[in-house]
Amino acid sequence: MYVCVCKAVTDTQIKQAINEGLGSRRELFKCLGVGGSCGKCNPHVKELLNDHSRNQSLMQNNVNPSILAA
Residue 19: what pLDDT? Predict the structure, then answer.
């Protein structure tokens, strides 16, 4: 799905960039150009960043302590 129509950037492209280490809207703007023209995509970009952050936290909290003790 297109998130930024102005720059023709999809959610898949944004997710890939986030997974490769981009962690802010500013970094995504510099790399993909999202959020720089009309700004209508900024809420969705922020949501994608927050979802990724939330998922990372969940994965870190679900580490099996017995594995770490081994």
Answer: 95
